[in-house]
Amino acid sequence: MTDPKVTSGKHMSFWIDSVLPLSFSPLKENINTDVVIVGGGIAGISIAYCLEQAGKKVIVVEDGNIGSGETGRTSAHLVCALDDRYYELQRIYGSEQTKHIADSHKQAIDLIERICKKENIKCDFERVDGYLFLHPTDKDESIEKELKAAKNAGLEIEAVEVMPGIKDNSKSLKFLNQAQFHPMKYLKGLCEVLTARGVKIYTDTKADKIDHTGVVTKDGFRINSEYVVIATNTPVNNKYVMHLKQYAYRTYVIGARIKKGSVPKTLWWDTGDFSQNAEIPPYHYVRIQPFDNDYDLLICGGEDHAVGLVEDDKINEEDKYGLLEYWLRQRFEIIDIVYQWSGQVMEPFDSLGYIGRNPKDEKNIFIVTGDSGNGLTHATIAGILISDLINGKDNPWESIYDPSRFKLFSAGKTYFKELVGGMINYLKQKPKDPKSVELQSIRPGQGKIVELDGKKFGVYRDKQDQFHMVGAECTHMKCIIKWNNDEQSWDCPCHGSRFTTEGKVLNGPANDDLSYHADKF
Questions:
Q1: Which CATH architecture has domain 439-520?
Q2: Residue 423 has what pLDDT?
Q3: Which residues have C-beta within 8 Å of that of residue 329, sequence separation ≥ 6?
């Protein structure tokens, strides 16, 4: 595995690989501020920028490098064409609220564009059109319904006969004026602007204790703050409430070399495979990125599954990349695959992110989570909305993104199928009377759950034949972890926490490491 301070997985994404590490000094003193933000991805840094613009004194703490979490593992689409169809959003939220949803994502893209121009950030930002096309398992009427609903929501959209650059004649919709950029270059530019204006950014600084008075770091230093914002993909300060409203998914990405200029700069995504999951159909998404003087990079993602439950698809994690390559080669002329990586998205049961005050907590604590596959725009919306909430400014999006909302019955089957169903599946697989597994049966590069002396452990055997043992109970809510053979990590199938082979936290909601038992061998 790569250094978890650099990125949260074994595979290096193109975004992380093409920019020097974004790191600052760790916090080494007690300090006071107006707002402390936990998390140095695009959400935390966007919120910091908007608050600094509003005159607030801001501190950001990040336990790895800037962008070492999911921001560095995205495919970097900037779209107001969302993972969930607008006709579904209209059913759940009504026509007027859906207009606000569409407008919030449009404003997020506009804000990124304005920031790039105002602050002279060179991050490959470009306006491009996007094409949504019908998956063979979907019904023709879904395209027709989406056209009507998206127009009603105020989007620039039209039905088209032919999509440019892709070998696919499916029914499609053209979403005008979408965008793309290089997320790590964008973060680098934002951090340079913020630090020049007095915002303090501390990396390699883990927030160990969080409450309404501020943060205490793992090294024992205190940040006293009037407001606290948790921007850690999934909130590490909320043990129960938010994790019953969303489910963690793994998504896979490949980067293929193509001849420079052979494919137009466009976004493509299909409506999803309803044969795999009719409630949250996994879909494919594609975009172009400049690579070098001779080649562009065709970035393709998809093949999602619930964290820790890949066996539901009967396809191993590491085999997902091959499926992406097969799908891509059917539609584009590619030379070879030069990157592969996976990421994690939080799927809310009612299709929309959670941005605002942390439920059942003090009024000065805010969270952003539930990206629903649109993390870059949701993160930028959080910059606008949380800044407004802290500054006492009315915002029409407040109730829409309120983390306390509960639209279970209007949301439909998704909650029960993915969250409750996933838990039942997990419990079925948990053996009542597990047998010990011979340590020597674990191959180099493989991990397994074993029982020793009546206790469960996760045991990983590295390529040098050294064994690494961790406690098998997730430190969030004690679910038994599972081995992710692709990213070489221990993943929790209940709420999506992930850990290195030595038990270090990669993803929340767990905020404490697994116990590490190297002394057992």
A1: 3-layer Sandwich (2.102)
A2: 43
A3: none
- What whole-number distance in Å separates Cα of residue 401 and Cα of residue 417? 23
451 token code pair: 């029982």
φ/ψ (deg, to 5) at 349: -75, -15
Query: In angstroms, rounded to a whole number, what is the distance separating the alpha carbons of residues 162 and 247?
Result: 36
Q: What is the pLDDT of residues 142-161, one digit of tens each?
A: 999 999 999 999 999 999 98
Task: Write out the two tokens for 85.
Answer: 């169809």
Determine the length of the chain. Answer: 521
User: Cα torsion for 375, 376, 378, 382, to the nearest 10°?
Assistant: 120
pTM across the whole model: 0.89
Instruction: State which H helix or E strand residue 304 sits in.
Output: strand 295-306
The percent of residues above 70 in pLDDT, for the chain, comes to: 91
pLDDT tens, 371-381? 888 899 999 99
Do residues 238 and 226 touch, judged by C-beta distance below 8 A? no
Residue 214's Cβ-side half-sphere holds a number of Cα atoms within 13 Å equal to 20
Lowest average pLDDT, out of 247-251, 441-445, 461-465, 517-521, goes to 517-521
Domain ranges in the chain are 439-520
